[in-house]
Design brief:
Layout (H helix, E strand, L loop, with lengths): L8 E5 L3 H13 L5 E5 L2 H9 L14 E4 L8 H10 L8 E5 L4 H10 L3 E4 L4 H18 L4
Parallel strand pairs: 1-2, 1-3, 3-4, 4-5
Length: about 150
């Protein structure tokens, strides 16, 4: 029988302070009680995942799931996703793109790069709680993660 780890981590890469705050609040309201880590752009995301700069195993627990925004400074979500899926040490990390984009070309491009899911950020907080609750249930409670 597969047992879920006692400690799980969701890493959220999003440059918008309000979006990070809303995601944290929505995850907590949906019953998520584990660690939530935030990075503000694709460069910082890659440093986190590669344990570079200020990130190490103590302050940057390995994520069980990455929630990735596409529109970020320095390195956007497409670039970061491409690097993650091209790296044998990182490619198994489940990645959910959560963005304001509804463009078909963004959906196709992210799936071609290897994203696991693509969702559009809702503009209503109650809908955000529902959405992250569904993500939490699926990714943290239902599937077997690597």
């Amino acid at each position: 029988m597969h047992r879920k780890p006692t400690s799980m981590t969701i890493l959220i890469a999003d440059d918008d302070t309000d979006d990070r705050l809303f995601m944290d609040k929505a995850l907590r309201q949906s019953g998520y009680v584990h660690t939530i880590q935030f990075v503000e752009d694709g460069e910082e995301l890659m440093e986190y995942l590669r344990r570079e700069g200020r990130y190490n195993e103590k302050n940057a627990p390995w994520p069980n799931l990455l929630i990735l925004d596409l529109n970020m400074p320095r390195k956007n979500g497409f670039q970061a996703l491409s690097e993650i899926k091209d790296d044998p040490k990182l490619r198994r990390l489940p990645v959910v793109v959560m963005t304001t984009s509804t463009a078909d070309e963004d959906v196709l491009k992210t799936y071609n790069l290897g994203v696991n899911s693509f969702v559009t950020k809702p503009f209503n907080f109650n809908r955000l709680v529902e959405m992250v609750g569904a993500l939490k249930t699926y990714w943290m409670d239902t599937v077997k993660l690597p």
